Fold these 2 entries.
Entry 1:
Amino acid sequence: MRKFVGRRSELKLLNNVYEVDDAFVLVSGIRHVGKSSLVRLFANGKPVLYFGARELSDEMNRRAFYDQLCGYFKENINPDQEIPDWTELFRSYAERPESDRKVLVIDNLELLITADSNFPRTLRNAWEKILRPAGVMLVAIIASGSVLINLESSHNPMLGSVSLHLRVPPISFIEMLRDYPHRSYGELVSMYAITGGIPLYWRFFKNAMSTLDQLGVVREQMLEQTGWFYNEPVNQITAEVYEPTEYLSVMQAIAVGKFTLPEIAAFLKYRPKQVQVVLDNLQALGLVRSEMPVTEKRANPKKARWFFAQPFLDFWFTFVYPRRAQLECGNTLGAYEFIRQNFEAFAEYWFSRVSMEMFQAGLKQKSFDFVCDKIGSFWDRSGNLVDIAALDNLHKKIFLGECIYANETPTLADFEDFIKDCGQLQDLNRYKDYTRVYGLFSTRHPERELIDYAMNNDNIVLFEGTTLYRKTDEASDRLSEQTENKQTGDGDSDSK
């Protein structure tokens, strides 16, 4: 089993909890984020009974648990035995002594709840009366966001017995850098723009070094009906909601650039309240997110914009879903050529999200004097957009950054145009007494004149991949702490 570096903190947390007597852990996260892999990695070398529920009746799942229990204790299975109820099965496991603390893992908890709505109560009682007194650590993995939401909204008593709810997030881009130390920064940005932080998806791209190679995998695995990704998002949505049509339609609207509630409603001819319900549910499932201009002090639904929470869904709904009829006829070439021609423009947005991570990594290392209170994007009423904006209210500073994802060398003239454009943003007038810090993020090496400009002027920072240029005693800094074992091939700076 492969250990992903990005799961170090979660693995450490589980091992710390293992030492605690009262340990009932609930693990959740979006589809394929690596919940089961994390728990299996944690369980390695421990006395563990790992049971994965299936889409079967309660009776059949109990029989499967019984068979696994017999195998765990090396006992013969009696095919004629009447299967005990869950309480007795858990008791049989808990009462057997072990040299080390035992761990009971129940994967796909939602399937047991679907088969028997009383299962959460059964599990809670078994935990309180049988497993906890016997010193068993209980780990339940729930793969369905909608089932978890229902449990939370109904204040199900089982959740009150959980000592740790571990929500497994997608792996960040910086963690991805650590896991692929020999891939260039630009290659990983393009791969991240397709797959996001889902380790399972990365495996399909392990031999695709260039962006063109990665798009070749897309053609094979997303555009072909036999491809692994062809139906992946539809399966994800239909597994979570009863009526997927509205959800798929709203996500398609976002993919074509309808980012506000009124825009989505008008595009789909839906009532705004109807759209709001769908958006709220999608956000609760971790599939979309809302964003306000970073300068807004309080939530304002009229100014909120909606985006995909992960790159993969954005990519799929942008390039695959609209061409399903074409793809079903076996015509993948047209869809592939459209992706190839438009991928750079698509990836630019996700490069801005990656660049926010790099900016925050620089702040964490105190690479420049800025205390971030809030980070995001900024847009004004005229639609002018600043890719990255951050506020430092302590020192009265505002950061404005531009992201360039293109096969062009960033130039001083382009950067000066960006600074000039920022000076014309009327909606930033309330920050006229704030010092402005300007930044540029790129995957390409900036021209020498631009590097010199940054290193000779206060409040200017340049990020070329993981390399930071700014006015300091040293010519450049590498964000080594956050990106250890960094890959070769990016940031071959002449200033070093």
Entry 2:
Amino acid sequence: MLYELVAFSDQIGILNVFRYITFRTGGAIFTALLFVLLFGPGIIDLLRLKQGKGQPIREDGPQSHFSKKGTPTMGGLMILASVTVATLLWSDLSNGYVWVVLLVTLAYGGIGFYDDYLKVTKQQSSGFGGKARLGLEMLVAALAVYVIMHLSVPELSGKLALPFFKTALIDFGALFIIVGMFVIVGAGNAVNLTDGLDGLAIVPVMIAAATFGLISYLIGNFKFAGYLQIHHVAGTGELAVICGALIGAGLGFLWFNAPPAMIFMGDTGSLALGGALGAIAVATKHEVVLAIVGGLFVLETLSVIIQVTSYKLTGKRVFRMAPLHHHYEQKGWKESTVVVRFWIIAVILALIGLATLKLR
């Protein structure tokens, strides 16, 4: 919206700053942050009033979690609202990639909201039916990938780029829809599984968003992409603005989610944030790099897969409890210790992911 002011830069020179993605990304960060800080308390009070008993606590979970009973959920609503406002305000709305990522974020947020609604109203830890929920996620992701493929230049459409290689591309053709769908759905659910402790998911999401904000900016800039010998994807630089909005919204949410949490983001937030990261990765042709940068989310997901598979095949559990963060809680680690150490892992993985830009 504000990007349109560039048209008047000939008359008012200072308006030329709206041309720069870096300036608008900074604007998106502060707008999203300010939105959450201003409206967050009111949203929390409203959710607490409407939900009554708050988010149900798993009966088989760590005993320390029962002290959180009554904490409202669906805090992802404040994240979604702030990201939407900041994106619409600071992005170039003629950019197709912006709309694809934003709509995936909102659609996944809607699916998560319905899941949270069922949990709160039924007061049980299980919500939306697994197959129906997964089907909706796959449908949204498939449509998003289809549009992204048509926005991409023919040389990159339907192809998977590999990190550490200058020009390596795997051509999947139309089957790339399945690949991209797997990335988006996987990212959404991986973040969702990670969201189990106060502040655990939101900081790694911000770290990944900052990483992909930089990647988007470099990928979308012809000169920088040429210098780094990475694939240039015209138009994706604008996704840095959305990444900025995710960072700002995350910082604001962390203010209220810091231990002891005043609110949980719920599936409304975690599913939406993961879906957004997945869509950005597909658009920038950095799907494999997302698995590195978001390696913490991958580990959490693998722990659940391993646990379920092992129990079904052998009747034995590999971990004391899954996802992985609960395993360390059961081993006696304090919640704050688990959270901070997982944040450190997220930073290290993000640095490794950024290294792939140059190590080719």
